[in-house]
Design a protein that fits this description.
Layout: H1 4-11, H2 15-22, H3 26-34, H4 41-51, H5 55-59
Length: 65
């Protein structure tokens, strides 16, 4: 399982860029990176679309896949 932070860093994208895409403050997005379960399903999908990754790769543990 990857994390939002690891995918974002791999893509060379800033927290600010993802936050702007989601329509939230950078601090809010930073909180999502440390507590991914706080995101709504829609936010998770939007973040993954922006970062070009699969929702399942970031939000589902390996044993569920």
């Amino acid at each position: 399982m990857q994390t939002l932070k690891s995918v974002r860093e791999l893509r060379g994208v800033t927290q600010k860029a993802v936050a702007e895409h989601l329509g939230v403050a950078r601090q809010t997005y930073a909180n999502y990176e440390s507590k991914q379960e706080k995101m709504t399903v829609e936010q998770a999908k939007a973040a993954c679309d922006f970062l070009h990754c699969e929702v399942a790769d970031v939000f589902l543990p390996e044993e569920v896949k």
